[in-house]
Design goal:
The complex is a heterodimer. By secondary structure, chain A is of the alpha+beta class. Chain A folds into 2 domains: about 100 residues, 2-Layer Sandwich (Gyrase A, domain 2); about 130 residues, Cyclophilin (Beta Barrel), CATH 2.40.100. Chain A has 4 helices and 14 strands. A 7-stranded mixed beta sheet of chain A has the order 8-7-14-6-13-10-11. In chain A, strands 1-2-3-5-4 form a 5-stranded antiparallel beta sheet, with helices on one face. In chain B, the strands form 5 sheets. In chain B, strands 15-16-19-18-21-14-22 form a 7-stranded mixed beta sheet. In chain B, strands 7-6-9-4-1-12 form a 6-stranded antiparallel beta sheet, with no helix packed on it. A 5-stranded antiparallel beta sheet of chain B has the order 2-3-10-5-8, covered by helices on one side. In chain B, a hairpin with a 2-residue loop joins strand 6 and strand 7. The longest helix of chain B is centred in the C-terminal third of the chain and has 16 residues. Chain B is globular. The chains are: A alpha+beta, B alpha+beta. The interface between A and B is large, with 43 and 47 residues.
Chain lengths: ~240, ~325
């Protein structure tokens, strides 16, 4: 089996590496429960940067997940054994960096974003308030007091999965998904907060909407929020004074 | 420019696929029939080849001269009523009409064009993905009847192709042992992702019973049908999707994910269909049964290397 397993100390992750098809390497955390999300995210960012620097154009795509990353290679220039060996070395290097920088953030380029929200009772705000046993204004105040970290873009172009939702705001997805979630909807479900860049079906609890453009194909990169970026929301509306 | 006068099915404009799009949540796209695409690219000596993926009868008018090559299973293809051979370079002259007769269900062809397309490139690609609303003719749309595709033909070498591409050579190359046999009723699959979380009964059902391609098959994914639903383990969080992953949704009917798949998905995955076998899978007619054959990743890599060698290593080409 072409794979490697890296046993680590402290709360660092156990990582496996494997070709899942002849052009794609999957790197994943074996036991995610032992690793905090921000450590995973930092480790992934360092690995991606190192792999891009090393492989250049040979690395044609990267997809980041919550506990895993896919590295897709140019089918015309793959050397399976050598490439896997290089990926292993880079993972070891990233983990070493993480071990020596465990108390301080690793140096990756991140941005902080403040995003205005028009909170609205037309969607799920009243139900979220009822389910979390607080007033609508408390939900809004609590939500705007949080700092979220972008874990990844997925589901649709520019849709950010953001961690940082406290236990007392975590709710399961809607039993029946909406067929049409509006563009710019800011929504929560389970551990995450997300923003819908386009109209889409969706099963998350909508708190409000934003005019922020999350994805513009003419920009580089087209997605506004990148993995590792931090986000705070502020209220545009005066709704929370009305209840 | 190329004018699509008539087409039974939408024609997808493709190239090698998008570059570094995954971190923006954007699908990679690229050729569905990679073997056909890379053969066309080799025949036309064109990197980042622009190609049309055709799944039905159509009629195209070339308003400029352009070199082209059609790759795929045998089909009735003519230019101005003259028969066109597959896997050969052809110079289509301005005003000529290319016709492809009705194709058998499941048959797909790749029409490579030695030309650049002036449309905007996104992530270094012109692939059309309608769901994402960019690429292709405009806003991700494929070509349909009446559409026009502006092209800039490439004529770097005068007399391109005629000496280098003797038909004899190409016919010989097609006789080489094929790593992907279109007549085989077995599709390779590599167990990975959540394979070990599936019960032994589920794994047995996956490889022991016949599968059929459903009519719900497109570049995003191919829904398969089987008589006995495959029991599904619990899966709660989304995960990244490689090309060819086989998701098993709650109804127990497998879905093989294609080049236009979403970047993430939440259904348990039993394994992957290797890149080289996807061409074979997607061309199975709806009524023809097939089985999944378990192979190791090492075997898949060896087959892939043979497949790449067949495309790239033949000096005749």
């Amino acid at each position: 089996m072409i794979q490697s397993q890296l046993l680590l100390t402290q709360e660092l992750p156990v990582i496996e590496v494997q070709w899942v098809n002849p052009t794609t390497i999957l790197v994943w955390l074996v036991d995610k429960s032992t690793v905090r999300e921000y450590i995973t995210q930092r480790l992934f960012n360092v690995m991606i940067k190192e792999l891009q620097d090393t492989f250049g154009l040979k690395l044609v795509n990267v997809v980041v997940g919550f506990n895993e990353i896919l590295f897709h290679f140019d089918p015309n220039s793959i050397k399976h054994v050598d490439d896997l060996s290089i990926v292993r070395k880079i993972i070891n290097k990233a983990i070493s960096l993480l071990q020596t920088n465990i108390q301080s953030p690793l140096m990756t380029e991140i941005s902080h974003h403040r995003i205005g929200v028009t909170f609205s009772e037309n969607y799920d705000l009243p139900k979220v308030a009822a389910a979390t046993e607080r007033s609508i204004s408390q939900v809004i105040d609590d939500f705007c007091g949080l700092t979220f970290t972008v874990m990844l873009n997925g589901f649709m172009p520019g849709f950010p999965y953001m961690s940082g939702l406290p236990d007392n705001l975590r709710l399961p997805r809607l039993a029946t998904p909406r067929l049409k979630v509006p563009k710019g909807a800011i929504a929560i479900a389970e551990h995450y907060c997300g923003i819908y860049p386009q109209v889409s079906p969706g099963g998350w609890h909508i708190l409000g909407t934003t005019e922020h453009v999350l994805f513009d194909i003419r920009q580089s990169p087209p997605a506004l929020l990148q993995s590792g970026d931090t986000v705070q929301f502020f209220s545009h509306s005066s709704l929370h004074h009305h209840d | 420019m190329i004018e699509c006068r008539l087409t039974e099915h939408p024609i997808f404009i493709i190239d090698q696929g998008r570059n570094m799009s995954g971190m923006s949540g954007v699908t990679q796209s690229g050729p569905l029939l990679a073997d056909q695409y890379y053969f066309a690219s080799k025949i036309l000596q064109q990197s980042q080849l622009v190609a049309l993926e055709i799944s039905g009868g159509c009629e195209l008018i070339f308003h400029q001269s352009v070199w082209l090559s059609i790759c795929g299973q045998d089909a009735q293809v003519t230019i101005d009523e003259e028969h066109v051979s597959m896997y050969q370079p052809h110079l289509s002259k301005a005003g000529q009409i290319l016709r492809i007769a009705h194709l058998k269900q499941g048959t797909r062809l790749t029409l490579g064009l030695k030309a650049n397309v002036s449309h905007p490139r996104y992530f270094n690609s012109i692939c059309s993905v309608y769901r994402e609303k960019f690429g292709g003719i405009a806003e991700g749309k494929p070509m349909i009847s009446g559409d026009i595709l502006p092209i800039n033909p490439v004529f770097i070498e005068p007399g391109f192709g005629l000496k280098e591409y003797e038909p004899k050579c190409l016919l010989e190359s097609k006789a080489f042992e094929q790593p992907v046999n279109m007549q085989d009723d077995k599709i390779d699959f590599v167990p990975n992702y959540q394979y070990t979380k599936f019960s032994i009964h589920a794994r047995y059902l996956f490889t022991s019973q016949p599968m059929w391609m459903s009519d719900k098959a497109d570049r995003m994914g191919f829904r398969l049908l089987c008589d006995t639903a495959i029991p599904v383990p619990q899966q709660t969080s989304s995960q990244v999707l490689a090309l060819g992953v086989i998701q098993i949704p709650p109804d127990g009917q497998p879905i093989v994910m294609g080049p236009d798949r979403q970047t993430h998905g939440g259904y348990p995955i039993i394994g992957t269909v290797p890149d080289y076998a996807i061409s074979q899978l997607v061309q199975f007619p709806v009524n023809k049964a097939f089985y999944f054959r378990t192979i190791s990743i090492e075997e898949a890599i060896v087959k892939f290397s043979l497949y790449q060698a067949q495309i790239n290593g033949n000096d005749c080409l």
